[in-house]
Structures are given as structure tokens and as C-alpha cells.
């Protein structure tokens, strides 16, 4: 039998899980205090829902669950059976699609605006050489049923509060609007049909600079006049909300200004929100505002989200406005572990040693210590000194020998 | 697209998740205070591990994950491709197999005795008409590396403490030993090869009585003399640890007596542990003590476990003693919800209403209230009275209108 976990998944050690649990509790408490309520949905979703969810590249990364029994035999009877015919459900690749399904399934029992927490695992069959996990945790908050930009503001303030409380320092919230992105491409004369391809190239602006973007546009044989007009927008440096006023609808610009100003005011200037016109976000289901959090010194986003006003409508006959913000928990965990994160004020863990003939009494003694300590009852080892070293290495803070008068002794 | 969750899985409503989270925290805290440390393992396991795990009937209930890409095409090129060839991993059906793999994978980083918590989802393709879920939560504690019966005692005391703390009342811990079961069958002259079949029939003793067991043994054409000798054991009523002294090794009897007596002493007589010779537990991997918790008035077990001294040896070249106790969280949750469970001393949840022109200030006001309350900031609705009713129905305890002098008003 195989001792290693399956490719792209991880076993977490006790000291890691202790920190993961603590961080997740801090995030959940922050979200609950902000009036969000938690739901859970199954990890398995109907294949039709997954396949039609406009999840962009993620749709190629779905783990599919094999049909069973008669359904499987009948599929296998088909000579040229396809992957999709062998499976009628799969593991979810995000929490937004299950939430949209959930809302449509349970809307009569839910209050709107529905402010909702999801903290759970998702699955993507990423190529492991990219160093990405195939099973990972996301911490999402979403607001369903509020079409005002106030929802974006609340998500940004609440998500950044959670990031602050877990101890992430020095980050920037980048914000854009899918409609601004479209307006820019359309204004400069590109063909609407090329928007997705253009977005993928423009998204690299941070890495390759405007000259790199220009070169890639030329390599891909886009219209020369459109390229010139597009690059021309940058001749005075980065695009700003003021400099794009002529390029797109004033409503889009004013919406972003309102979000940036209100977050600034409500956070007393502590949360930096930056208009980032080259921000794209991969999912096809976003319809308006998109945002992510970039941690200084780390590439890639630690959180991301946006508005998806049409996704719930795929389940219901009416469109319902919705916007969400997802913390990539594994990124946060990775960054904090690199910084040697320690839980503040952790309850102390001690061992109580017993001898065979006093086990029941030692159990009672240990139980009485549990208001103050985490207490593990352990048979007294023959080599106590060596064992005490092992305890220290394993996050114990001290010990007591049952029956000896001096009680709990803390290490160090 | 389909709004309902896939067959056998459930969406949980906010008020349910609030209670589930609270109960899971109580259980986890109880376990941590008892010196157990939490780990997590992936939900996906290698198919070979699952298939060879001696999980009894559960092995027929495994959800298999379809191979991908070239591996899948190559499997499909085989004309008579089988279910197993289409898949090289599956969803775990319990937490014991993943734990055994985990221990063998990480043992150099772990302390023994390894006292470990797992609280996580497992998957079984149960027939939905049995009212069973296909995705459900188990809360396990295990002790690895302790071959003394003290481990069983600690698991029983810790698990029942968790059950007490979540508010489960009136239950019995049933205990048996697989070796006693085998000794009884062997003593009465049955063929060893029939042990599994015999166990399945004997397991029904509680439901069908000794006459029912006799009838089933006869229907299945077991040896008449063996049946008579077996039934003869019951002529003075139930079997007791004293009455089976001649039937099996004294060690097995003394072990159970030691467990029962020590739990009684350490719990001051509050935890009833009952020798139950017909207790079987389904998994094939159990090697010694087995136990479960039966809640008065509810059929089926709310918790179950036992000793599995050979399972980790399938991964390592040495056998490592191990014993575990698993709370069936869905059973506990179901029972408590039937009893209208309410979270004690829940932090109060209120709404703060704002008007468009004072949103930023209302956010600051709400933030200041969050030490005392969970606070959801909501645009003031046109029909405030009607909306307040909705808040009350949705577990809110009160509200405040930003800008009005009278502050927080609690309902009722």
C-alpha cells in the first residue's frame, strides 16, 4: 500500500493544523462579527452545473466521479464512450458555483441581502510541477441580492480586516471593472471577439511592462491601428480613473471612485485600494467589478473576487446581483509559515505521567487540570529525561508526574 | 442547471451550520484539552489503499474518481475496460484508513503514543432510500502506539465527555472484543470460515432476540450440534463476562473488566459501559476491543470504534498497535436538532441600518459595536417594520438605525 498522499494533495502535521485551525477561526469570527452567516454545500456537484458554469480554464481541471452500477455498465456499452458519459458528477473547483446553486435551491429560507460565509475545500487538477495543490481551502464571503457598490465596499473592508487579524502585513487591494476592460478594448478599435485573448495579454502588464504588451499584441497580429491607439493611452504613464474618463461610461469610473473613496474613509486611510486597469481575473462569470489582494514581496494574489450578476440566473429564471471575495487560504498559510507564525496566547499543553497502579486516579487529576491546560495522560516512560525532550519538540509546554508533590513543571 | 444538491448530499442552512460549527468546536476543544492533536488528510485516497483496506461492506460503496488525460484514453483503449481500470483514486469512506497511511508517511515527525483528532467528511455510496447521507462528517480520536487497554479507557472517557458537553443524554457504551466473539463461535463448534456470516446473524440479537438468532442459524443450515451448544450458552439469560470465563481466554475477559472498572472509577460511576457479546462492528480491520455508543430511544450507534493493530502494518513493515473511536456527527446533529437544540450564550446578532449618504460613517459605527455584537450593515429598507420581522425570523436579536440617538434595540 502507498504511504504518500495522492499527487497534489497534502498531509498536514499537528503543528500545522493547530495554526490552520486557529487562522480559520480568526477569519470565520471576523466574518461572523461582520454579520455574515456560514453555509456548507457538498464537495460533489452535478456535472452539468460544473460544465456550464463559465469557470474559464478551471473547467478543464475538474475531477470527475465515475458513475456506478447500471449507469456505468450502460455507459461502457457505448463503443466510443466519452469522459463526460462516464461521469455525472465532479468535485467542485470553486465555492461560487455551489453557492449560486445553493441560493437558488434555498432562497425561500434565506434573507436578502444574503451575506454568506463559505470556508471549505475545492479541487483542481493543476499540473503538480507548478507547485500548486490539487486540494485546497478557500475562505469566501459573498453578498447576494445587493446591486449597489456598497456590497463591494463591505467585502473589501471585511476581507482586509480578516487579513489584518491573521497578521498579513503590507498588501494592496487592486480593483478594476470588466466593463472598463471591455470599453478600453472597444475604444481602441479591437474586435469584440478578441476580448478574451486581449485580456490575457494585458493581464501581463505588471510582469512585462507596456513594451512587452505591445510586442505580444504585434506577435499575435492584432490590427496595427488598434495597437497604436491602445499603447497611446499609456503615453503619460499608467492609466488612471481620470485618464480613462473619455474611454468609457462615466458610471463605471464613478463606481470605482466611490468604492475607493468609501473604503478609504471607513478604514481611516489604512486600506490601500488601487485602480488597476490590467487586472483581469480568470473566471468567465464575472460581470462588473473585479478585485484581488496582492501581498508585497509575493507574486500572485492572496485573495480575489468580483461581481457575478448573471450566474444565479442560470439556475433561476431571474438574474440576482451577487459579488464575492475569496481568500486563498493556502497562500496566506504559506506566507505566514515562512514568517514563522506562532499562535498568540495559546493554551499551554502538558503531559501527566502515571504508573500502572494509579491510572484511574491520574485520570481524575488530569481532568482537574484541564481548565488551565491541554493535558495528555501518558504512562511514565522508562527514560523520562529523553521523553521530556521529545515532548518539548512536539509543542508541549511542561509536565507533571502524578503522585509527586511538586505539580506542574513548565519547560524553559 | 440543477438547483438541488446531488443525491445523498445536503445543503445546510445558516442556522444549521451555526449549530454544527458550535458542536464541532465543543468536540474539538474537548479532544484538544485531553491532549489530542488534530491532523488533516486529503479526501481523495489512492485506489489501491482503499481497495486493500479491509473496510467490509464499505468497499462496495467507494466513489471512484475518473482518470484523466492520457491515462484515461489508454484505459478506454482496452476493449473490456473495468471500473477499477478507469480510476486510480477514490473518496475515502472513513478516517481510519487515511490515518493509518498518514502515520506511516509521517511517523518520523510524530510522537508516540500519537493521540490524534480527525474531524472531517467521508463518502459512501449508500442507497439513498435508507435515509443515509452519502457525504457526512465523522469526529474521530485515535491512539497509535499504545498496546495497553489504557488507550481504550482514555478514548471512552474522552469521547463520552464530548458527548456530554454537546448535550447528549442517556446513552450506553457497549463493549466487546473480536477475540471473544471468535472464541465463542469456536467453542461452540462452528467452522472458523463461517465467522463473518455468524457475526452478521449474532449482531441482530438486540432486534430479534435469541430465538430469532436460533431460527436464522437454522435457516442458514449451520451444524445442529453447534447451534444447540451456542444457544445453550444463553439458557441463563444474557452472557456476562463471568459466564463466558470457560469459553475464552482469561486475558480477554480481564481486559474488558479492567476497562469497565477503570472507566467507572475515573468517571465516578457516570459512564455506563456494558459488555455486549453480540456487538460486531462491520469493519474487517478490527483485531480486538470494539465498542459503540447507543443513545436511548434511537436505533443505531451514535459513535463506534475499536482496536486495529494490523492496519498500519499494511503500510509499514512492522505492526503498530492502534485504537480509535469515531463520533457519527450527523447522528448527534440529527438527535440534537430533533430536541430543538439552541447554542448557549450565543453572541447577539444585530442589524445597523444606514442611508446612502452616511454609509462610511455607519460602517465605522458598526465596527465599534462588534466587540459586543455580530453586526450586519444593511441599507435602510423602505418598509422597515416588515423587514424587522424578517430579521427576527433569521436569528437576529435586534437592530440600530445609524444616526438615531436611541442606539441598539433588542427584539422582544
Automatic annotation (TrEMBL), chains A, B:
Residues that coordinate or bind L-histidine: 94-96, 124, 138, 142, 281, 285-286
GO MF term (any one): transferase activity
Enzyme Commission code: 6.1.1.21
EC class: ligase
Chain ranges of the Aminoacyl-transfer RNA synthetases class-II family profile domain: 1-344
Annotated GO biological process: histidyl-tRNA aminoacylation
Record's keyword annotation contains Hydrolase: no
This protein's UniProt keywords: ATP-binding, Ligase, Nucleotide-binding, Protein biosynthesis
Catalyzed chemical reaction(s): tRNA(His) + L-histidine + ATP = L-histidyl-tRNA(His) + AMP + diphosphate + H(+)
InterPro entries for this protein: aa-tRNA-synth_II, aa-tRNA-synth_II/BPL/LPL, His-tRNA-ligase, HisRS-like_core, HisRS/HisZ
GO cellular component terms listed in the entry, alphabetical order: cytoplasm
Keyword Cytoplasm (UniProt): no
NCBIfam families given in the database record: hisS
Similarity annotation: Belongs to the class-II aminoacyl-tRNA synthetase family.
Record-given protein name: Histidine--tRNA ligase
Amino acid at each position: 500500500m502507498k504511504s504518500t498522499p495522492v499527487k497534489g494533495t497534502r498531509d498536514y502535521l499537528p503543528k500545522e493544523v493547530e495554526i490552520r485551525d486557529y487562522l480559520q477561526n480568526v477569519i470565520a469570527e471576523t466574518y461572523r462579527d461582520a454579520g455574515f452567516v456560514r453555509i456548507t454545500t457538498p464537495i460533489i456537484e452535478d456535472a452539468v452545473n460544473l460544465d456550464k458554469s463559465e469557470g474559464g480554464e478551471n473547467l478543464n481541471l475538474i475531477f470527475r466521479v465515475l458513475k456506478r452500477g447500471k449507469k456505468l455498465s450502460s455507459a461502457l456499452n457505448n463503443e466510443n464512450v466519452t469522459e463526460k458519459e462516464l461521469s455525472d458528477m465532479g468535485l467542485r473547483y470553486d465555492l461560487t458555483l455551489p453557492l449560486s446553486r445553493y441560493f437558488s435551491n434555498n432562497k425561500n429560507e434565506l434573507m436578502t441581502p444574503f451575506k454568506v460565509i463559505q470556508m471549505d475545500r475545492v479541487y483542481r487538477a493543476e499540473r503538480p510541477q507548478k507547485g500548486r495543490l490539487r486540494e485546497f481551502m478557500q475562505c469566501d464571503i459573498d453578498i447576494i441580492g445587493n446591486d449597489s457598490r456598497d456590497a463591494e465596499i463591505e467585502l473589501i473592508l471585511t476581507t482586509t480586516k480578516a487579513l489584518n487579524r491573521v497578521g498579513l502585513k503590507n498588501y494592496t487591494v487592486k480593483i478594476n471593472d470588466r466593463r472598463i476592460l471591455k470599453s478600453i478594448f472597444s475604444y481602441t478599435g479591437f474586435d469584440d471577439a478578441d476580448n478574451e485573448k486581449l485580456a490575457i495579454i494585458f493581464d501581463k502588464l505588471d510582469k512585462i511592462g507596456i513594451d512587452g504588451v505591445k510586442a505580444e499584441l504585434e506577435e499575435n497580429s492584432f490590427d496595427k491601428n488598434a495597437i497604436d491607439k491602445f499603447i497611446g493611452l499609456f503615453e503619460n504613464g499608467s492609466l488612471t480613473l481620470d485618464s480613462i474618463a473619455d474611454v468609457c461610461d462615466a458610471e463605471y469610473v464613478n463606481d470605482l471612485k466611490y468604492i475607493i473613496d468609501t473604503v478609504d474613509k471607513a478604514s481611516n486611510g489604512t486600506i490601500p485600494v488601487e485602480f488597476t486597469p490590467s487586472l483581469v481575473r480568470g473566471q468567465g462569470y464575472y460581470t462588473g467589478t473585479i478585485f484581488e489582494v496582492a501581498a508585497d514581496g509575493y507574486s500572485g494574489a492572496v485573495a480575489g473576487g468580483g461581481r457575478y450578476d448573471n450566474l444565479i440566473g442560470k439556475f433561476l429564471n431571474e438574474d440576482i446581483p451577487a459579488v464575492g471575495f475569496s481568500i486563498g487560504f493556502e497562500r496566506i498559510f504559506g506566507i505566514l509559515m515562512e514568517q514563522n507564525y506562532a499562535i498568540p496566547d495559546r493554551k499551554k499543553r502538558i503531559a501527566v505521567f502515571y504508573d500502572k497502579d494509579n491510572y484511574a486516579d491520574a485520570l481524575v487529576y488530569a481532568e482537574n487540570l484541564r481548565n488551565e491546560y491541554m493535558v495528555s495522560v501518558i504512562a511514565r516512560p522508562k527514560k523520562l529525561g529523553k521523553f521530556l525532550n521529545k515532548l518539548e519538540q512536539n509543542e508541549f509546554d511542561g509536565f507533571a508526574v502524578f503522585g509527586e508533590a511538586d505539580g506542574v513543571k513548565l519547560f524553559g
